[in-house]
Every structure is written in C-alpha cells, then in structure tokens.
Amino acid sequence: MYAIIDIETTGLRPRFDRITEVAVFVHDGNRIVEEFSTLVNPERTIPYHISGLTGITNEMVEDAPPFYEVAKKIVELTENHIFVAHNARFDYNFIKEEFKNLGYHFKREILDTVKLSRRLIPGLRSYSLGKLCNHLDIHINDRHRAAGDALATVKLFEILFQLDTENKKSLFAGTTLKDLHPSLSAEKIKDLPEETGVYYFYDENDQLIYIGKSKNIHQRVLTHLSNQSSQRKIEMRDRIANIDYELTGSELIACLLESDEIKRNKPVYNRAQRRDTSYTGIYASRDKNQYLQFSINKIHDDLPLASFSSVEKAKEVLNYLTDEYHLCQKFTGLYKTDGACFQHQIGICYGACVGKESPESYNERAEKALKTFEYEHRNFLIIDKGRNPDEKAVVKIMHGKYMGFGFFDAEEADFYPDIVHDCIQHYADNRDVQSIIKRHIRSGKIEKLLVY
After folding, report:
1. Which of 151, 238, 217 lies closest to 387, judged by CA?
2. Domain final residue pick, 239, 265, 291
3. Domain co-membership, 42 together with 99
4. In contact, 423 and 407? CB cutoff 8 Å
5. Which residues are bridge partners to 331 per DSSP?
6. Are 191 and 244 in contact (CB under 8 A)?
7. Helix 431-443 to helix 251-265 angle, to the nearest 10 degrees?
8. What is the model's pLDDT at position 358?
9. Partners of 408 in the beta sheet?
10. pLDDT tens-digit series, residues 298-307
11. Distance between CA atoms of 96 and 408, rounded to whole angstroms?
12. How many other β-carbons are positioned within 10 Å of the β-carbon of residue 439?
C-alpha cells in the first residue's frame, strides 16, 4: 500500500516553516482506496509571496485545524504504507518535523517519483511535476494546492507503475536488501536514525572497516547496503556485520568527526578514499633571498596550506592567486626557469624572478595571498545546531588553530557563558579540518560565528 502525499507550507525550511495544507491519497497499486485533504493552521503568518504562489491566505487558514488536530489521521493513513511524493524528502521532512514538535517520531519508507521518473523516463530536460505532467498529458487541477498536486502525483505514480514491467518489487516495495551478512539484523537497520551524524561499519570480528557521515544516517546506510555498482562496494557490503553511529546534529561536526575518526582508525575501506582526496598540497617557503614562494608537492609529514585531489586543481588555485596578487609565475611554481618568468618577458611580472623587485615589495603581495589560506579571524567560535532542540554545537578556533568541538545546553549558556568554552573536547588540527571549517563558513551552513 502507498500513501501519496503533497503539502503546502509557509516556506522551504522544515525547522522554521510550517504546513498550511496536506493531502493524502491511499493507493493499493491499482486505485485510490482512501483520501484526505485539509487546510492546516500554521499558527504563524503566511508570507505574501507564498500566498501568491499557492493561493492560500491567512484568512483561509484562520479557522483551519492546527497540525496536532490532524496528526492522528495522518498517522493512520500512512501507517505500514510507503510514503510517496514528488521530491519526497521535502514533504517527508516537513511532516516529520511537525511530528517531532509534538514529541512523536514519524518514520516511513519513502518513494520519490522524481527519482523513479528519471529511471523509467530517461532523457527529459526537467523532472518537475508540471513538466512531467505536460510530457505525459496529465491534467493538473489546482496547481500548487495540496490536493491538486497530490492527485497529479497519483496519476504519475500509476503511469510509472505500469512502466516498471520488469521488476516492480525493486522500485515500489521499498529498499530490497539481499545477501547481507547473517549477523546484520533487519531490526538494526530499521532502528537507524534519520538524523545527521557519523556511522561505523564493523565486520564479524568487530573490526572497524568503514566510517561515513550523512544528514540522514538511515537513508545513507540503505544506499550502502543496496549498492552493487562495483566489486569493492559489494565486498564491503557483504562484510558488514554490525553498524554503530554517533549523532552530531550539525553537518559541520559530522564532517569534523568523520575526518578525525578516519585518520585515527584508518578503516580498510576508507584508505583509498583518503589517498584519492588528499594527494597533492600547496606549500609555502622562502628562498635564499627571502622571496616567499609557493609550490605544489605530494603531501608529506608537514601540513600543506591546502590539499587537493589533483595537481590540476592545485594549479587552478595558484593561477588565481598569481593573477589576483600580481605574483611571479616562477615563485608560484607555474613556470620552471632559471631566469625570468614568461610574464616578465611580456611585461606583466614586476621582475622579482630576476631581482628587479625587492623581496620586501614582492612579499607584501605574497603575504596577502598566503592569508587566503588562513581563517579571517584568529579567535572565534562557530555555533551550530545540536543533537536536540535544547542543545547547541560549538567549534573553537584559538590563535588560528582548531581546538575541537563540543555541545552545550542553550539555556545554561545564558547563565554560565564559560560553558561554551568548557564543553570543548580537543581534536587534532590539520589542513583537512581547516578546509572543512572554511568551506562551511563560506557556504553559510552554520548558525552563528562569534569572534572573541
């Protein structure tokens, strides 16, 4: 049985926005057997641009039931059914978050009609619901309303069901896990959390063989267990006899913990991955005349300024720095010569390569390029979401060095500010974690950065 669902919301973020409408069509694989649709009072204002998109106004939901009044019905309609939606993770995460606010753990198998469409109707330019319906001559009534979009998804589902003539079970009966290690129980897999953290695979001798991270541990592990894309992945899957995990809440903490754990434990199925992703580094040094130089080398015991998967990617960075800070190609390792670099020959380089520009003048620009590999601030804290709503995660940088991370009670921090520093567990600093931290800061995926 399948519960085909669509929702409308006040925005795009499950943790901050709320559901304004929900529609559920229960389908037995042949026809609709039950349906339910209702507006939902989000208990907050619907933004004007959202009302313009959906047609749902604040006046329309004023007398509608809040989510907690329809929660029981949604549980009943979806229990023991596969959760089907177009871009299913969006609808599922919103509904899961609404239940989480009520203290209930909502967990269902998921089927995404976007992914199914890509597999069964390949080659289309777009797999949005509107474009798919146009392509398949499916008429949508009330576009961007829950019942209208859900019914269109039902019709799409029925077409996909018919197209899957060879092996319905693999596509429509949830994830099929075959040939797993006899010690790995289905209950263990089922109980894995759909939350952010680090997961660990062990063999029958309790040997740690793989470490990974994910925003959804349960879903990511299922991907591993059903992956038959290479002999190495099949071999690893067959050896998994036990699974453990560590919740982090924060994606940044998951990345930092995974990096540290892999370096310390060196699991057999992570080793090749580490070699592939950290093969080449950019280093800095000074020559006998004190000119600051950059070079690309294989990573050795000394920490590089940055690590790369290939020489080409490292060269891209040095080319950018050479142009941005008017550096000498000879001193950035991009032009091998005992004399003048190519750019000096055509009048672009200021002549450090042949002693025409002093080390002091040249290094003033080279030092600015060097600082691009450093943090913007010397001392700062990154505050991010924790493992539960009352908790926050913190990453500490002191004197430009990564000190570690920890978790603290958000309310206690108001009364005991030192707890933010005292909760830090120390971890090793290295270029990998520095790259991870900088990447997350640039991406804006953290909640707050505090300079101290």
Report:
1. 217
2. 265
3. yes
4. yes
5. none
6. no
7. 170
8. 96
9. 392
10. 877 677 888 7
11. 25
12. 12
H or E segment at 282?
strand 280-286
Residue range 280-293, pLDDT digits in tens: 889 999 999 999 99
Are 260 and 284 within one domain? no
To the nearest 10°, report the CA torsion of 251, 253, 255, 256.
160
The answer to whether position 275 is within a domain reads: no
Could you tell me which residues are beta bridge partners of residue 247?
197
Is-contact 443 382, C-beta < 8 A? no
Q: Which residue type does 175 have?
A: T
Q: What is the pLDDT of residue 138?
A: 92
pLDDT in tens, 390-413: 899 999 999 889 999 999 988 888
Q: To the nearest whole number, what is the mean pLDDT of the chain?
A: 89
Q: What type of residue is 140?
A: I
Domain end, chosen from 371, 395, 424, is at 371
Instruction: Look at the block and give the residue holding tokens 């600015």.
Output: 368
Catalytic residue among 27, 81, 144, 344: 144
Query: Are β-strands 280-286 and 401-409 bridged in parallel, bridged antiparallel, or unpaired?
Result: unpaired
Retrieve residue 348's tokens: 């672009």
What is the reported pTM?
0.57
Q: Do residues 260 and 393 both lie within one domain?
A: no
Give the residue from 410, 1, 380 showing the smallest Cα distance to 173. Answer: 1
Q: Are the C-beta atoms of 343 and 355 separated by less than 8 Å?
A: no
- pLDDT of amino acid 273: 47
CB 109 within 8 A of CB 137: no
Tally of domains within the chain: 4
Q: What is the pLDDT of residue 323?
A: 93
pLDDT mean over 115-130: 88
Domain membership flag for residue 417 = yes
More confident residue, 71 or 388: 71
Supply the range of the domain harboring residue 447: 380-451
d(CA 392, CA 24) in angstroms, rounded, equals 35
pLDDT band at 385 (very low <50, low <70, confident <90, very high): very high
Known catalytic membership, residue 144? yes
